[in-house]
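Weekly structure sync - notes
Attendees: PM, LS, DV (DV joined late)
Agenda: review two folding runs queued last week.

Item 1: First target. Sequence and structure tokens pasted below for the record.
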Amino acid sequence: MHVRLRIAAVVAAFVLVVGFLLGVRSRSSGGYEPYRGPLASPGTPAAKAGTTRRVALNTDPADYPRLKALGYDLVDVKPDDSLVAGVPEGMQALLWVGNFTCGDFELDYEAFTRAVLRFGRDPRVYGWYLSDEPNSGECPHVAREIRRRADYIRGHAPGQVSFISLTDWPMKPVAPASVGVDLVGLDPYPCKGSAQTREECNIDAIDRMVRMADDAGIPRRKVAPVFQTFGQGCSQGDKQYWLPTVDQLRAILARWDRLAPRPPLEVSYSWGRQKEWACPSLSDASGGAHPDLQSVMKARNTRR
């Protein structure tokens, strides 16, 4: 019995030494220190079936109280400890780690894997935004990179989702069956054209993009509608999009409700202004100089 106790003591000491050395190595390598709080599980909001999560893109911490009051329960942030810690109770983070079209990713692959190890079991995190409008026709390597990252999330971030947003470029190479992502945003922006055509948005553009997704093999249950809540009246872009009126936004929402009812995720683009692409935006649209789109979204987001 005393021999067994001595053996157990030696084993325990060995485990402590190895654990200490691994911890020192992890911290000295410049990587993220893994999350030490309660673990995410299949019961967290990120993984509950039948619920719709809602995010308005391009936000700052000062916006969070207003977003929460409007019924949004996700915020998009970079995988930074202080930013994730700033997400309010009752909301979660959608971590932006992606790329635009054919550009470089926000994090190279090594930094990305460190971020997943840091936040992959953090219940404050809903998921990972891996790419915005990847153009697989011009840059096939982007699809391979998305696949590699989605696979890593699946293995190291249980209960969290991988997400990409697509436009009307080739979809099949970046469909879930090809790249392994959980959710796919579709972003037709139907309020587009010259000043003379602004009385009517091309709502059928939504149908067209959904048909493209169908043809690419993207299941409707994995589709995340992206709503147009921006214009370009004060942007430095090409100014071909306009901020929808209240009735036009309601028509956009109604069409999406017909094509993708009760989706797992809904995205409003954009809450914050972007110099080139989005100005005015949803943060401006509270009535007065702009349509009161915030009230429309609040009614939608908080309905029972």
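Item 2: Second target, run right after the first with the same settings.
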Amino acid sequence: MNKETLLQKLHPEIEAVNATMAREFESIQSALLAEVIGYGVMNGGKRIRPLLTILTGRLVAFTRMPDDIAKEADITPPEDLYRLASIFEFLHAASLLHDDVIDHSGTRRGQKTANRVWDETTAVLAGDYLHTKAMTMAGTIGGEDILAIIGNATEAMIDAEFLQMQTVSDFNLSEENYFTILRGKTGALIGSACEVGAIFAEATPEQTESIRIFGDALGLAFQMVDDLLDYQGDSGKTGKAVGNDFSEGKMTLPLIHTLENCDDKERHLINDLLSSTPEIRIKNIGRVTRIMERTGSFAYTREGADTLIAAAIEGLAPFKDSMAKDTLRSLAMYVLSREK
């Protein structure tokens, strides 16, 4: 399934998620809060996390059905599945609002951040609202088990943020620590989005474990591709300057691999740049990129993402062949080919 076909197939589900989220915000009394939430959440987006919840729910439900009872296309997911799916977009948006304040960011995806359009207090409070909304919905719709999954994912995200803060000046960050941070910052939310869909559809423990494998591998690969796009992406599509991670001193996999495989002179240069100002780093991004290419760090990261996506797809093996399974497989492949 190519990208255009995939997006066309997913469009009705994306529209259903958007409509569900809009209904959840109808109770907001403050015009300012509604405006900020609209800016931070209802501004388009791929909706990958909620889509994963819906698709894994459909996958499990169809697999559990006896053969020839009904066609997959005739299965209409209940509204509560879409409401649970929306939770992951709320949590994702909340983390972005907070991250932009923490990082003093002025733009995201080519647009001004909420903390610049309004102010930091407004952005933080809007993020707090989304987080509280998400946890309330998790408890009232999903019950204790789903609330625990989402709560654990949120804890992991915050814990990973602190770990990353502690390692900002650690120029010898190991791959092991990198993946620990990755699992918390990106993997936990994507993995729990998959797991919640499966549990809502009453998956068996074995099915839930398979979905967990899929989600974990997909989440890690998603971030590794992000790491590559930061150095190799088109800024017009990503909305970020090339080398933004390096300018901020972030130790992502291409840089970690480079430092482990470059010669002493190159390592000394990179460490000097990491110890300097963001302005000096960004001026020298071309030199660093050439070293990364020589050490095969981009290829190494790409191979790692390829391996993870293969593992994710293998996690779908126990389930019946279906439209949901085919779409999840295509969505996993899209993660590898995305440009933003």
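Discussion on item 2: The chain is about 75% helix and 0% strand.
Action: LS to circulate a short write-up before next sync.
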